Amino acid sequence: MATEIIKVPDLGGAEEVEVIEIPIAVGDTVALDDTLVVLESDKATMEIPATKTGKIVAILVTEGQRIDREGVPLVEIEISGDGEQTASVTEAKASTDTRPSLSAKTPAQKKPTPTPVENETDGVADEVVADGSGDGDQGDAANSGADLKAAANEATAQPQSVDTLSAAHGKSPANGDIYAGPAVRQLARELGVELRNVSGTGPRGRLLKDDVQRFVKQRINGPQSGGAAVPAVPDIDFGQFGEVELVAMSKIGRLTAANMHRSWLNVPHVTQFDDADITELEAFRQSLKAEGEALGTKMTPVPIILKACAVALANNPVLNRSLQSGGENYVQKHYIHIGIAVDTPRGLVVPVVRDVNKKSLWQLAVEVAELAGKARDGKLTVNEMQGGCFTISSLGAIGGRGFTPIVNTPEVAILGVSKARIKPLWNGREFEPRNMLPLSLSYDHRMVNGGDAGRFMTDLIGLLGDIRRLLL
User: Fold this and answer.
1) How far apart, in Å, are the Cα atoms of 159 and each of 103, 171, 468?
2) Are strands 66-67 and 35-40 parallel, antiparallel or unpaired?
3) From 169, 261, 269, 445, the catalytic residue
């Protein structure tokens, strides 16, 4: 019988994935496309399917194991139906239209991933992005001692030496340089942490993201000279009051909480509120129902709001900037990519619609629906959640008259959209019923002044009030 080893596919931009489920056992018979292993990155999950029918000979990974590169062996299958077939070792390929590539680049290739995260929610709700990168070391693969598995593990899971990794980063351990990957260095820069002050818990003393985060938490909760630290919230035994259950937060939930906390502590938030008269916009949108049915999609308010925001950002480029950590420079972006917060069973995620200013309303409607569906199914790739300039957090399908969204750093502004209501509006002669949409713009006051925000909101409200202005 021929055997085949299923390996980790291209991870699509993710720096690290974790094995979160192994629904099969040694000796099980699996059919084509049966799920063998489930992997999870910071914002997406991916099921690795069987590429042929056969029996599970060995499982080469364990639940909880972290993997930071493609090609790591996952499962060995004895292929049935072809006794003469020569043993082969091929990678499992995720279908491009149903399965995402999650991704991993080597330390020398990958670019640091900004860490947006986020907020409130609804089908296309609020939120901001979580860091798609990770920096941890691959756990030991489980093995039964078979020669083939041992050879595969040794070939793909062998950790690099300190010298090799340091050379890849242009560092020499002999010179006392820090032993840490690019993602850890990026996180340290964002948090203002001196890595030489952090103790590494990885192999050979390598610094991990958890080490940096633990260091920051200790500094926040511990005593500090020259000022008071943020007081820690004490743990309470709620079991004394009634029946309770202790539930572990999901990975996305933990990252969202950490990033929201970081944004709130580092960004001086200001929120501006206003209402947009969308009476004519809604009449126009309703008139598109038949055309949408013919195209197989639906024109929701979100594509129109996206397009209006793109025009307002082009007219007010100060909101399309990012402040560099040193505070002496900012990056002016000459592209317009906008994130839309989506509420999912796994937590809030923010897929990014690219080049919004260059796409038609129907193109945006199709793309928004596809991204929202992939987000809820956990099929977004890391690349689909990167590069945002601005974020829209919509609670319109849920309700509410307004809220204060948290800026998705390193962006400098985020738009909150609440539920539209019919209200009386004075037209100079009488009150008339108008469909009013509550908007709330939160911005980073280090970069955006009140005048900048006011001009942006005036433009946006004018565009939503008369969408013909989108053509100007």
Assistant:
1) 19, 17, 59
2) unpaired
3) 445
Give the whole-angstrom CA distance, residue 319 versus residue 413: 6
* Pick from 156-165, 246-255, 326-335, 428-437: least confident: 156-165
- For the question of whether the overall pTM of this predicted structure is more than 0.85, the answer is no
**Average pLDDT estimate for 182-199:** 81
Give yes or no: 445 in active site.
yes
Instruction: Provide φ and ψ at 204, rounded to 5°.
Output: 60, 25
* Nearest of 16, 18, 172, 210 to residue 106 by alpha carbon: 16
